[in-house]
């Protein structure tokens, strides 16, 4: 990873922009020269102004400054979240074996998250470690969450719900999650926060189904419908429609739910496998459970 100033100079030269255009009103010309040589650091507020003049987002700059690679922790968690959301637990188990024992702190943390996920889906309850409890308390006490913390909440929620020693109000947590998502939504959704919100809703929906609180599960439909589908990317649209189809299996027109899922599978087959929702696996689990529910409720 290069010095921040050195990367700024590279971007500026590629874009054909002068130092005056980039630094005017922010720092002196002499400081700009030292900064671009890597001899001086700069305050974060001034760096954001410089990036704005270059028309480069902080995330894009971090990517460029890291030799055009995502930060290791982001990459590792992205792999975990994809397997987790798609219920690809055999792949997740192998991923843990492949990364366990490595010395880098990022990989240790990522493995810990993955192990929590595996445990929560394989066991009805799990003792909460001191580290996990501290992380949960931190998230509860923080008024605002970062994008990474939004993702972590999705991991911890099933764990704390299954643990009788921790009191958590899912409705309050849902409201807080929604408010934090709004912080990243302006006219558009540049960080795909709505995808995270759909994923969170799907976890809450499944928690209610698993604990047999069908009244609260049925109420989740309104949450899904409140999401502006026009702001979603293709993955988000497919995921939203999928969970509305699962809702139909339980509480609506069962045959229509099956038809919706069949259509979504067809759409998925037209595109790459990368990052896809594992429709067939989740559908198989939920269809069986929905039939049991309908048998009991009739």
Automatic annotation (TrEMBL):
Residues 8-61 form the HTH cro/C1-type domain. Transmembrane segments: none annotated. It holds the Pfam family HTH_3. SUPFAM superfamilies: lambda repressor-like DNA-binding domains (SSF47413). This is Helix-turn-helix transcriptional regulator. It comes from Tetragenococcus solitarius.
């Amino acid at each position: 990873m290069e010095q921040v100033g050195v990367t700024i100079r590279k971007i500026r030269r590629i874009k054909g922009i002068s130092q005056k255009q980039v630094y005017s009103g922010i720092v002196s010309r002499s400081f700009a020269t030292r900064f671009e040589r890597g001899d001086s650091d700069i305050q974060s507020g001034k760096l954001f102004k410089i990036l704005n003049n270059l028309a480069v987002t902080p995330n894009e700059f971090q990517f460029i400054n890291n030799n055009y690679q995502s930060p290791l922790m982001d990459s590792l968690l992205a792999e975990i979240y994809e397997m987790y959301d798609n219920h690809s637990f055999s792949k997740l188990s192998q991923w843990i074996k492949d990364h366990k024992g490595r010395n880098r702190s990022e990989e240790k943390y990522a493995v810990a998250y993955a192990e929590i996920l595996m445990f929560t889906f394989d066991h009805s309850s799990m003792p909460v470690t001191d580290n996990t409890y501290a992380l949960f308390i931190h998230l509860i006490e923080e008024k605002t969450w970062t994008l990474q913390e939004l993702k972590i909440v999705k991991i911890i929620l099933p764990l704390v719900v299954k643990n009788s020693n921790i009191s958590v109000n899912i409705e309050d947590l849902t409201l807080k999650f929604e408010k934090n998502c709004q912080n990243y939504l302006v006219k558009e959704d540049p960080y795909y926060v709505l995808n995270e919100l759909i994923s969170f809703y799907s976890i809450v929906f499944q928690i209610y189904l698993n604990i047999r609180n069908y009244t609260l599960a049925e109420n989740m439909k309104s949450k899904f419908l409140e999401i502006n589908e026009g702001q979603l990317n293709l993955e988000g649209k497919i995921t939203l429609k999928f969970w509305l189809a699962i809702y139909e299996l339980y509480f609506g027109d069962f045959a229509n739910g099956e038809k919706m899922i069949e259509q979504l599978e067809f759409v998925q087959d037209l595109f790459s496998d990368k990052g896809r929702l594992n429709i067939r696996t989740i559908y198989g689990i939920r269809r069986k459970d929905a039939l049991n529910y309908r048998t009991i409720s009739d």
